Amino acid sequence: MSLLLKLDQVSKTYNGQRGVQDLNFSMERGEIVGFLGPNGAGKTTTMRMITGYLRPTEGKVLLDGMSVHEQGRKVRSRIGYLPETPPLYPDMTVLSYLKFVAKLRDVPAREQKHRIDEMVSRLGLIGREHQMIRSLSKGYKQRTGLAGAIIHKPDLLILDEPTSGLDPNQIMEIRDLIKELGENHTVLLSTHILPEVSALCSRVLIINQGKLVLDGSPDSIGNSMEDAFQVHLTVKGEADYILPILTSWGNTQEHPISVGMHKQSGGLLELQLSTPSRYDYREELFSMLAAEHIPILEMKKQDQTLEEVFQKLTMTEIKDGSELSSEESEKAKKEGRKRK
């Protein structure tokens, strides 16, 4: 893979206060990257700077080494953007809207019919071409918005809450579409639905109060932030017999292991074992239980979930005087838009 997008020391100031500060990250071609953060963290501001809608106060946004803001339309023509509320015209039909967007996006006239037919087929809009947009369901409006965002075959596709307000079936359909789009586009996906990120994304960026606080894969970030090594254990036997054995063994280890909450049900005992260090003690635990003839049904390392990592990172307030609270950030953004 090769580098497609790069943000270099990007900051955005609203009314003298920073909404986004010193963002540095890049995206490779073919990546689907989840972009997470609480309300007011700076996600939408960042996406608008990437698309060229907003200009950074400091720093550069580069696509293939070219400045999104200095080289204007040439660069922005390679970006597709679907905001949380798709910019649709309710009095147009799906077909007339796609024709309008194709012309707006400078799709060559000889290619427009083929490209529109491709979008209708690819986005599951067959049979809806002549339907008024106002009469479409929320799911089909999202599909129509996606079709408009990719009709010019952008290199980079930016999606802001693409499944917001959809029912479970529609969410699954849009997720499948995003997976398919990721085969031909680089995708930056902003969402509050964290399982969506785990299911779709190869990488996660978390922003809090305008600063990037994490960059990593969904599988690795939980383990990297662990401050203890925890194991969920299910064995066959009675608590009165097994608990003293485990407690005694845990107290004799180089890194003492505590035996936490347990549940006895139908001859099975479920336990949570933990040590403050990151030492992996599963092999020793297995050998001890086998020597005591205690049947093991399950032994599983417990990693922090993406939800737990997100909460840990975004519940911490940055109090250096330069950051905005969520409410202040939203207010500043609104004031900035009014001035424009």
Automatic annotation (TrEMBL):
Residues annotated as domain ABC transporter: 5-234
Entries under Pfam families matching the protein: ABC_tran
UniProt cross-references to InterPro entries, sorted A to Z: AAA+_ATPase, ABC_transporter-like_ATP-bd, P-loop_NTPase
SMART domains according to UniProt: AAA (SM00382)
Ranges of biased composition (kind: Basic and acidic residues): 317-333
Keywords, comma-separated and alphabetical: ATP-binding, Nucleotide-binding, Transport
Start and end residues of each stretch annotated as Disordered: 317-340
GO MF: ATP binding
PANTHER family in alphabetical order: ABC TRANSPORTER, ATP-BINDING PROTEIN (PTHR43335)
Family listed: Belongs to the ABC transporter superfamily.
Protein name (database record): ATP-binding cassette domain-containing protein
UniProt organism field: Paenibacillus gallinarum
